[in-house]
Amino acid sequence: GILRAERLGLVPSRKADIIFSSDVYFASDHLFDESHRGTILALFRQPIDRLVSKFYYLQTATWERTYRPEWKDMSLLEWAEKVNGDENFLVKKIVGKKLREEVDLGD
Question: Which parts of 36-104 fold into alpha helices (H)?
């Protein structure tokens, strides 16, 4: 991954036009510097659509570690109000917060 790319000097070699990472801060800390700057492109799925999809997907995805058969008998509203444990993972990553820290509208 990123550490191997750093060790091999990927960015200074100019052999890659695009580098994908889910951890922008980690990648930028290990791959880029003042002489080798990067540009970020971020694509985001609409958050409500993403959670609705997660709810229905994990009702049937028996191959997933996070499979939840108990969600089959729940309404989407019940799940959203009582079960949904979405922790705004991506928002926390982008603003540099830890997973246990809270996010608010200022973030």
Answer: 47-60, 76-78, 89-95
What are the structure tokens assigned to 44, written together? 């985001």
**What's the angle, vertex CA 91, arms to CA 52 and CA 86, rounded to 5?**
40
Q: How far apart are CA 100 and CA 97, in angstroms?
A: 8
pLDDT > 90: percent of the chain:
54
Contact 71, 57 (CB under 8 A): no
First CA to last CA across the chain, in angstroms?
A: 29
What does the pLDDT average to over 12-29? 90
Residue range 17-31: mean pLDDT, rounded: 90
Distances (CA, A) of 12 to 8, 30, 33, 39, 40: 9, 12, 10, 15, 17
The answer to whether residue 75 scores a pLDDT higher than 90 is yes
Please, are residues 2 and 21 in contact by the beta-carbon 8 Å criterion? Answer: yes
For residue 5, give both structure tokens: 């790319």
